[in-house]
Write a structure and sequence with these properties.
Layout (H helix, E strand, L loop, with lengths): L6 H6 L1 H19 L3 H29 L3 H11 L6 E3 L3 E3 L1 H25 L8 H18 L3 H19 L6 H32 L4 H7 L5 H21 L8 H8 L2 H26 L5 H22 L5 H22 L2 H28 L17 H4 L1 H15 L5 H15 L3 H24 L20 H18 L2 H9 L6
Antiparallel strand pairs: 1-2
């Protein structure tokens, strides 16, 4: 069957096409000349153009959420809406996909910026990591547009395989190589579960299309229904691994600790955001919310993630491991909104992911600027941050705001995210999940404040990890300042961001 794409479909695919062109551009640039600044800039420019394209796609819908006096100029700038566009049976580019493409691209752009600061002192080849980053971002874009399991699996592997190289990029560091091998083996097992689950579902339904699966499954009986159930369980196991939900979370702290700090930031944000966005689309289009057993299983995963993530974080003296367990707990919180279903729940998931991505990038950004790949390890223990306020008050202030936001303190981005999750849970009367969320938040407050306290204690005998004094003039420092302002703006004046998430609503809810 032949598919001819029209101009609107090419425009809808523009973020994916721009990132693909960027990858080729960087490869050619490296072939002509190895230059760290030049090749990093090429990737940054490409990701910026792709982000602009994704923003342009969602502008017409965003204009409808704004006051009347702003709608006219914005609609004139954006023109008529080009979305939704189904590009072959595999991809659906709608406002929902455009929003999450923007989120993945923003996280990738922030990672590229942090990577440049981090790799400046690296003695080996510095350029290939940017190709890997762009390839992984391309996989994330394919995932958020997928409406078919074939496209999902291609995107998932395109997202995951470059991460193996990015995690182990510092080949002379044992922990980095160990983390890469561990993620490679366990991720391959998770992909095998996903692939075999797809095969079982296809064997009984004859389709990999999300909507068609939802139409076919209710008519299955007996052994056919049992096979589909096993397939769905295997799919859930693989996806739970990718999201590091308990009890499939054991890889997370070791990989975060061993990975270079900017790579850990990307792994915690862009990769998980893409997979969760896909899972939400699948649940809506296939009607999976009809099955109470599936929601009960997700509830168990949410409770385990919240409890284990927060309790195990209490024991950590390594900030990267602490943030790893924190991410496990946060995706447990997101599952509370996910399980609630409905328009409010979809909005809550979008708001929470937005606040989580901004906050986590800021926290890992501080770790990145305090670290360097040419010393024996990253600045990852809490002792390395003791007294940071007295050496670098600007970085200490950014990390303080990030930790407060992760804890969900009012006037920060994290509070708005948790408020939406609680509202979605109350709307559907998910009292047990909400009680677990309150318990987890109370425990989390303790270890976030414990980490924050280290920043303000005087400790002249502790080895100092300090970036250059002119850090604020560098792109990485300026980006961290922007993230801190964004965290505060989200907490104080969230209305514009809520409008963006509402404009990116998922059809069918």
């Amino acid at each position: 069957m032949k598919f001819a794409l029209d101009a609107s479909q090419w425009l809808a695919l523009s973020p994916i096409l721009i990132v693909s062109a960027t990858i080729l551009w960087v490869m050619v640039a490296i072939a002509f000349r190895r230059h760290h600044w030049w090749n990093a800039t090429v990737v940054a420019v490409g990701l910026n153009l792709a982000l602009f394209a994704a923003t342009y796609l969602v502008l017409p819908e965003l204009a409808k959420q704004l006051p009347a006096f702003l709608q006219g100029p914005l609609l004139k700038l954006a023109g008529p809406s080009q979305l939704p566009q189904m590009v072959t049976p595999l991809l659906m580019v709608d406002t929902y996909a455009a929003f999450y493409m923007g989120l993945v691209l923003a996280a990738g752009l922030a990672t590229a910026t942090l990577t440049y600061a981090y790799m400046e002192g690296h003695k080996g080849n510095q350029e290939e990591i940017y190709i890997l980053l762009a390839l992984s971002a391309l996989g994330g874009l394919v995932i958020v547009c997928s409406r078919h399991f074939a496209a999902f699996f291609v995107g998932l592997e395109l997202l995951s395989i470059p991460l193996y190289g990015m995690i182990g990029y510092l080949v002379k560091e044992r922990r980095s190589l160990e983390a890469s091998v561990k993620y490679l083996v366990l991720s391959a097992v998770a992909s095998a579960f996903i692939l075999f689950g797809m095969a079982l579902v296809y064997s009984q339904t004859g389709t990999l299309d999300f909507h068609q699966i939802g139409v076919t499954v209710p008519g299955l009986r007996g052994n056919e229904a049992a096979v589909v159930t096993v397939g769905a369980a295997m799919l859930l196991v693989g996806i739970a691994f990718k999201l590091s939900l308990a009890p499939f979370h054991l890889w997370t702290p070791d990989v975060y600790e061993g990975a270079p700090a900017p790579v850990a930031a990307y792994l915690a944000t862009a990769s998980k955001t893409a997979v969760l966005a896909l899972l939400l689309r699948y649940f809506v289009e296939s009607g999976a919310y009809r099955y109470a057993t599936l929601l009960n299983v997700l509830s168990v995963l949410a409770i385990l993630s919240i409890v284990l993530g927060n309790v195990l974080a209490l024991l950590q003296d390594n900030i990267k491991r602490l943030l790893a367990y924190s991410s496990i707990a946060h995706f447990g919180y997101i599952l509370v909104a996910f399980i609630a279903a409905g328009p409010l729940a979809t909005e809550a998931v979008g708001i929470y992911l937005l606040t989580y991505v901004v906050t986590t990038l800021a926290a890992f950004g501080v770790v990145t600027l305090l670290s360097s790949p040419y010393v024996d390890h990253d600045a990852d223990t809490l002792w390395d941050y003791r007294g940071l306020f007295w050496r670098r008050p600007n970085l200490a202030g950014i990390l303080t705001v990030a930790l407060l936001s992760l804890a969900g303190i009012p006037l920060t981005a994290g509070f708005i995210g948790k408020f939406y999750v609680v509202a979605a849970g109350v709307d559907k009367r998910l009292w047990l999940l909400l009680a677990t969320l309150v318990f987890g938040s109370a425990v989390g407050l303790f270890y976030y404040l414990r980490a924050m306290l280290q920043l303000y204690l005087r400790a002249p005998w502790v080895r100092k990890y300090s970036p250059p004094n002119d850090w604020a003039q560098n792109t990485g420092g300026l980006m961290l300042l922007a993230l801190m302002l964004l965290m505060l703006l989200l907490g104080v004046f969230p209305t514009p961001f809520i409008a963006v998430v509402q404009a990116a609503g998922l059809a069918g809810q």
